[in-house]
Amino acid sequence: MKLGPWILRRRSEESELDEEIRFHLSEEQKLHTERGASPVDARFRAQRDFGNTSRVKEETRAMWSWTTLESVMYDARYALRQLRRAPGFTAVAIATLALGIGANTAIFSVVDAVLLKPLPFRDASRLVAIHEALPEAPYLNASWPDYLDWRAGNHVFEDIGVFQPNKVKLRQNGTPTMVPAAFVSSSLFSVLGTQPFLGRLLSDSDDRPGAPAVAVISYALWQRALAGDPNLEGKSVEVEGFAVNVAGVLGPESRLPQVDAEIYLPLRRMLGGSESFSNRANHPGLLAFARLRPGVSVDTARADMNAIMKRLAEAYPASNKNEAAKLSPLPELLLGAIRPELLMLFGAAALVLLLACANVAHLAMARASSRQREFAVRASLGAGSGRLLRQLLTESVLLALAGGIVGALWANWSVAPLVRLSPYRAPGLSDAHVDTRVLLFTLAASLAAALAFGCAPVLQTRFSRLNRALREGDGGGAGRRFRSALFVGEVAIALVLATGAGLLLRSVFGMLHADPGFRPDHLISFSVARPNSDGQGSLRYFTGAVDLLARQPGVVSSGAVMCPPFGGTCWTSPYWRDGHAAGGQHPWTALNMITPGYFNAMQMPLLAGRAFTSLDNAGSRAVAVVNQSMSSILGPGSSVGKLIHVQYSAHEVLEVVGVVPDVPQYGTGVFVMPEVYVPAAQMPVNFMTFVVRSQAAPGIAAREASAALRSLDKEQPITDVSAFSETILQSAGRQRFAATLLSMFGFVALTLAAVGISGMMAYTVIRRTRELGIRVALGARRATLLRMVIGEGMTLVLIGLVLGIGLAWMLAKLVSNLLYGVKPHDPATFAAATLVLATCAFTACLLPAIRAARVDPVVALRHD
Amino acid sequence: MSAKESNPDRIELLQGTLDMMILRTLQWGPQHGHGIGQAIRASSLDALQIEHGSLYPALHRLRKQGWIEAEWKITENKQRARYYSLTARGRKQLSAEESRWNRMVEAIARVMKPAL
Fold first, then answer.
1. What is the model's pTM?
2. Are the C-beta atoms of residues A192 and A289 closer than 8 Å to each other?
3. Degrees, nearest 5: CA angle A329-A334-A338
4. pLDDT at A304 over 90
5. Nearest C-alpha of chain B: how many angstroms from A10?
6. Which positions ≥6 away from A679 have C-beta within 8 Å?
């Protein structure tokens, strides 16, 4: 309904009715005059016979359907006046609500972007990820020959696509840089439902050996490298020194599951000839995704894939015996881990809002009982109780809306830092912001809050009306019980949040202070890939570079490793101890290549044996250093001197010469794989990460190191520059995110609860001034009064604490996935949270209690 | 209010009968609010002294039901007044109410004055 015409129509109705009544009265008056009445008498009689004009108007107006809205507007105007007359109450209430609503809005904008918005793939619910598994290796990427057999033999998928996440050297504005790339099968984009923004996507013909080199690039790279030129005709980018034609551009929202890529290249053309693709036992980092045919369930697809894998196991027992294909629905894969954590934080925010509502309810009730007179006057002037109730609710809604607006503004500011702090790599996260959907949520939250705290004074009014007969000075027993219940709830909620925050803070502290097996301070790392050089060439480069870096000013030591700690495992392989028969199934180990100085640079202490030296080279006996996990698997006694076979290493058999501590491969608190280190000189690789221990600050050290490397090869880009202290911090990212939010919520909850208890006690003391005065007059000692008031407050606190401990005990399992080094029901954390809360509550009780003890009987008895 | 006190012989209207009487009055042609009141008073020989004010909510109610329609016209005394007239639906409603009323009066009469 448009407001303009509505108001005009409303006005004319109003004036027409006026005119009609005026006409009636004048006619009637005329009638009486004709019968001989005096003009004054005639007017009086006309009016008398007509009845109450304003009531008639009121009744008539009630027939017009929009009067509800009108009276709402009237209520709103009245409420605004009331609120303006109590600026202190209004400000505190709005600020409190803004805290609660703002926290919920900010979290909701993240929840909305991550969990509620559809994934950026067409019909994502029909997409599944496929990985392989062996009894000893629960997660293996797809093998290329297996993928081809799946694609040919299945009856359940529209199609299957694979890609290999990779990095390529791209020349941008003359400088070679490494950019994230994906080598994709030509089927991948159609499986994901990706549409080109410009040009075309990759086709089967692009994948044929000998076809002209083409690429599809991301929107961002198109903007950077081609300045967003929509004409792609003859446009190319330089990849690894070759000109590659740009066939198409993806839209800004398009992406691959799990991986970010800037450039997409045809998979077979890039890697098709390599041994790693023809060997069925090899799993060359291929991520596989399939689209279910319409109506096919994941379970049906699983059964079909199991049948295929069984056939493959019979046909190729050497590689495929006991091998399984695992299907995970894409939404589950992308959001499964995040959902419970985000919902937990969302729940915590909701608790904060609940607390805020309880506090405002306290305020509103205190205010309502001092407004009894106003209500009584309005009631005697004819306002129905429904009308009064609506009036109170209108005030609440206005307050909540104001709180919602302030909260939304606050949330708008805090979403960006929140997303920056967030460790999640969910598809929609970077786009999180306060939009219409989020604002609708804010509106809903505000109205829910208004209902929650707006009903409190109404309930209290009900109670006190019942109690009016009793004429007790103190708002009535039922009203007080209601307030007490609210208050107990507040303490319980605050304790739940404080306990959650405590558990997570302890986890973060534990993770940051856990011994990683090396010394992370003053240690930087950066990666270099030499895709075009052979083994010996790479080895020469990396050995030379490590020596060069070691000679830089400030550098204490340097080394290089294929796969640094916290970087995952780049290479895994089946292994067996010498003497145990080859063939059959074997457990898997991580395999890592290092330069001789690596352990020294990392300051990983040798637990047994020796580190590698430059004498362990291509010509000497094949040696290995194992981590502690592997050492304990190898059995009792020193591992030094034992012989192991690692299938994918360059040598038949390796002699263990040393043992080093476990370092976290995936992150603190994550399972550590057995690991075998071999000298890079005996198994050269063309991709390594340098580690440099320097006295200089990380930023300066990194700059100097990259300058030194440029002097060796100015065309060589370096990537992933990071300081290990920072890496460790990031590895605790999920915990830090949850801990930060829960601490903030916990702090707010604690403050609100303290303010709440203090306010309630103060209010109670004021209402009981008379009683206290009598007690003093009758000889009660002030210490007794102090004890009495504090005792009353603390009894409620105690009930709240017991309730809170119970609640926290039940809810602790929600955070158990995030905990490190602390049990969900850690008694120390529970005790600490309880103590903090009890102390705060006691302090909050103290001030009103002191005021109670200072009551002057003379003044108190005159009170009221 | 005051009118009721001044004349004890006046009869309180049954719920809904005012609406019926308005429709009945309009049967003879368009009339304004005051005229309707006068007509009811006159035809009931002043026994039914309705409070004039209550006419107007009733008129609005009937208009909302679509049984009467309103139009501003100039009276014989050159004054603007809102004239109400029956619609087709109003006519149908009136006859329905009349037969219902008759049935009710008969029923009440049988109760109050049982045939001897």
1. 0.72
2. yes
3. 125
4. yes
5. 14
6. A593, A594, A595, A596, A612, A616, A617, A623
* Residues in A touching B2 (Cβ below 8 Å): 48
Count of C-beta atoms within a 10 Å radius of residue A31: 16
Partners of A21 on chain B (C-beta within 8 Å) are: 56
Contact B53 A53 (CB under 8 A): yes
Query: Over 90: is that where the pLDDT of A477 sits?
Result: no
| Domain locations in chain B as residue ranges | 2-112
Q: Is the pLDDT of residue A474 over 60?
A: no
Question: For the stretch B82-98, what's the b/e string if a residue is b when 16 or more beta carbons lie within 10 angstroms of its beta carbon?
Answer: bbbebbeebeebbeebe
pLDDT interval class at A470 (50, 70, 90):
very low
Query: Which token pair is A561?
Result: 């490793």
CATH level 3 topology of B2-112: Arc Repressor Mutant, subunit A (1.10.10)
Angstrom distance (rounded) from CA A556 to CA A691: 11
- Within 10 A of A198 (CB to CB), how many other CB atoms are there? 20
Query: DSSP characters for A320-366?
Result: HTT-EEEEEEHHHHHHTTHHHHHHHHHHHHHHHHHHHHHHHHHHHHH
What is the rounded distance in angstroms from the CA atom of residue A623 to the CA atom of residue A641? 10
Most confidently predicted of A644-648, A656-660, A670-674, A782-786: A656-660
CA distance linking residue A726 with residue A733, whole number of Å: 11
Gap between the Cα atoms of A453 and A399, Å rounded: 10
Query: Mean pLDDT score of chain A, rounded to an integer?
Result: 85
Amino acid at the residue A331: P
Contacts of A31 in chain B (CB under 8 A): 38
| Section A164-180 average pLDDT | 84
Q: What percent of chain A has pLDDT over 90?
A: 36
Q: What is the rounded distance in angstroms from the CA atom of residue A372 to the CA atom of residue A374?
A: 5
Distance of CA A76 to the CA centre of its chain: 38
Structure tokens at A393: 């609710």
Residue A325 has pLDDT above 90, yes or no: yes
Q: What is the C-alpha R_g of chain A?
A: 37
Q: Helices A53-63 and B55-65 meet at what angle, rounded to 10?
A: 10
Distance, CA of A38 to CA of A29 (rounded, Å):
10
Q: What residues contact A734, with CB distance under 8 A and at least 6 apart?
A: A341, A423, A424, A818
Sequence-ordered alpha helix ranges (H) in A680-732: 698-712, 724-731
pLDDT of residue A467: 44
Residues 6+ apart with CB under 8 A from A417: none
Q: Would you say A833 and A498 are in contact if contact means Cβ atoms under 8 Å apart?
A: yes
| Phi and psi at residue A815, to the nearest 5° | -100, 0
| Interface residues on A facing B, Cβ-Cβ cutoff 8 A | 16-17, 19-21, 23-24, 27-28, 31, 48-53, 55-56, 59-60, 62-64
Find, among A304, A325, A336, A331, the residue nearest to A162 by Cα. A325
Q: What ipTM does this complex have?
A: 0.82
Residue of B nearest to A22 (CA): B81
pLDDT of residue A559: 95
Q: Which secondary-structure segment (H or E) carries A244? A: strand A242-250
Size of interface A-B (CB pairs under 8 A): 62
Residue to test with chain B: of A21, A49, A61, A64, most B Cβ within 10 A: A49
A466: pLDDT confidence band, cut at 50, 70 and 90?
A: very low
> What is the Cα–Cα distance from A754 to A652, expressed in whole angstroms?
70
**A49-58 average pLDDT score:** 80
Retrieve residue A2's tokens: 């448009």
Q: Are strands A242-250 and A196-199 parallel, antiparallel or unpaired?
A: antiparallel
Task: Please give the single-letter amino acid code of residue A473.
Answer: G
Could you say which of A28, A51, A55 has the minimum Cβ distance to residue B34? Answer: A28
